[in-house]
TrEMBL record:
Modified residues (N6-(pyridoxal phosphate)lysine): K325
Transmembrane intervals: none
Domain of life, per lineage: Archaea
One GO term of the biological process aspect: carboxylic acid metabolic process
Pfam families assigned: Pyridoxal_deC (PF00282)
GO CC term, one of those recorded: cytoplasm
Keywords per UniProt: Decarboxylase, Lyase, Pyridoxal phosphate
Protein name: Pyridoxal-dependent decarboxylase
Source organism of this protein record: Methanolobus sediminis
GO function terms (MF aspect): carboxy-lyase activity; pyridoxal phosphate binding
The family this protein is said to belong to: Belongs to the group II decarboxylase family.
Amino acid sequence: MKEIELMRSFFTRPAGDEDKIVLLLNDLLKKIDSKENGTIIGKKETLDYEKLMRETKFPHGMGNEADVGDFITELYGGVNIWCHPLMQANVVPPATALSIVAAALGARYNENSISDDYGMSAARSEIMAIAMLADLIGYDTTKAGGIFTFGGTGCNLYGARIGIEKADPNAKNTGIRDRIHFFCSDVAHYSIRSAALWTGVGLDNIKTIPSCDNVMDIHLLEEEMERTISEGARIGTIFATMGTTDAFGIDPLKKIVELRDRIQKKIDYRIHVHADAVIGWPYLTFRGDTRIDHLPHMLQEEIREILSSISDLRYADSVGIDFHKTGWAPYLCSAFVIKNREDFTLLQKQKKDMPYLFHGEGYQPGTFTLESSRPNYAQKALANMMLMGKQGYETLIVHLITAADHLREMMDNCSDIELLNRHNPAFVTDFRIYPHTKFDTDGNPLFQKEMCDETEEEFTEKVNSYNQRIAQYMIARAQKEGTAMISYTDNYKTTRNSRTIVALKSYPMSPFIEKEHMDEMLRQIYGAKEWVDSNCGFET
Ligand SMILES: *Cc1c(COP(=O)(O)O)cnc(C)c1O
């Protein structure tokens, strides 16, 4: 074969090659997916990455699809299988088949979401997906707007940049003149730190507001905002976390916006409030529905409470939503939704009076987005919203909460496991294991005493490493044998005297989970505890 013919065989022709990609994909998937896989594909090996780096060179000759395909399938050894019911390590979803296909189509036609000239289906998908989300939030869809971007991190960065431009108008041209502060709670996601770093606001200029039970203290926020003004600095974005990653805390958004409105009267610039709802948003689908009526009374009440807090999202100036977390779509798929789309003009690069969003010359988000080239992020989200609807999201969430509730009920009855979020109906369950009993000699829970620093600091440290060991044992075993996988958070809470508390977490995301899987999960947790008890003990 002439070399150019071989090259052509790597591509698909403009027409008549529909099967090529499907066959190739079919072949590779069959090699990777097998019945023997548990929570992990094959085994996770430890790798010498430096050696890998040193020994890998740009290939000289052409390869062939079969060999390179085989090679690629082997790279998947050690990869997690998120749809496995015992894979409960983190808020990572298995993706719906159609959203995976949407991602593949996006690659096949290689659309660029920079402008509709380079991606008509991407443009339509983005506008429709944003419209659906604005509708879900309760924004006025004649004024709202939004774009998809790279993660909740990207959403926070947009919220940060718009907040800077409001606080220090024209900073996009002149650079930031005065000191600007960002505000968020002490359990907000670290990507807000990335936003402070990348915008030039600076890590030292984030005001971290203490939280109580993972909810921002609004009075301390007010004090810090007043202090910022009296010090002559400016108030940049206020970040409200609507569903924290590990404990599902929800900040009092409506009160934050009311506070903002009051404080804004005293200053001559606007203050932007961004809601980081990347985890919490799908609870909005419960609004006005009766699908929870059959649940146990307590659970219903708890869901209604979450719904009531999450409904505040409509008060935020902008909202970050991750489909690649609680939207069951593949990476990357995150929406930044804004109440007033004119705010995007604050980010426009060109001086001329640009048509933002869909005025005049078509759809050209590239005039204000951070990215230049953008993939067709939105279609995956659109596919899932159309496929699942509010009903589907509710069904899945109720199912996961019910499974989580089963685990919690069992743990509540364990003498050595303290359940840390009994009455918070997120599907994540946070817990802490004690070597012998969760109660002190006086019958009171050790955890309460730890939180009030009534135990020795050394004791808390020992319980922390005891829990880490249990998680590490489970993770190591899962990576070898495909068994149940949980994880831990190094800083679930801080005690009154700022001691950190480690918690184990179970984060079920698979639609295939049943109560029996939670029974098995608990058995394996006890198996790990026994291993740690007999091999490490508590004292070392
Ligand atoms: C995961 C997470 C983020 C970051 O989102 P990415 O999509 O990983 O960039 C931001 N905020 C919260 C609350 C998160 O849980």
